[in-house]
Amino acid sequence: MGAEHQSWPALEAALKGGGRKDLLPASSLYALAAVEMGLAYVNFTPSTGASIPALLELAEKTGSVVSGKDGKTGETLMKTVLAPMFAHRNWKILSWVGHNIFGNRDGVVLDDPANKAAKVRDKDAVIPNIVGYKPNTLVSIEYIPSMDDWKTAWNHIHFQGFLGTKMILQFIWQGCDSLLAAPLVIDLVRLSILAQSRGEKGVLSQLACFYKAPMGTRVNDFFVQFDTLKNYLESCRAK
Predict the structure, then answer these.
(1) pLDDT tens profile 55-66
(2) Rounded Cα gap, residues 49 and 87, in angstroms
(3) CATH number of residue 18's parent domain
């Protein structure tokens, strides 16, 4: 990001100047439209969206609320649930390999190398964040048109237990992509509206449990994230 992305006045001036056409990616233009109108913006994709300092500054001024990025619906959800177990049992993860195949529009979009790289980055970052070290990791994503709206993930986890004994855990996750995502999107809309009704603005970090790369926090542990959301909602009820 350039200097023009660091503050809203600088970005506004650059946009009005009509210079570079690539100043903002398409996802950030959508975010700008929502934030400028004071509306809630939810980014369920790995795209940049509102995660630019200038847009976050604007959200504070307009009363907009934003959250993201990259909805956590399948394999990465499992990772953020299982990785804390390894940490709490003091089992050292040696390697974690995940292979993903799916169809639908998501698969078409992620067949693009740049889009795939962003998704892989988000999926690959959660394990080191939770356990505090970097195991050997590999994430692959392949578009298989015949899969339609179903996605399958196979994961192979090689870990070291007591007395250095090496063991393996494997799992296969298969789910209907749209049906996994739909209830989360509904909840994100409801929670965003709730936050705005309470006069909140800017990043809603309490919604981290919905995302692979949550804005406003570096915590990826699903249980810690969910406790944060639960505590927030309890505080809402108390007022």
Answers:
(1) 999 999 999 999
(2) 32
(3) 3.40.50.720
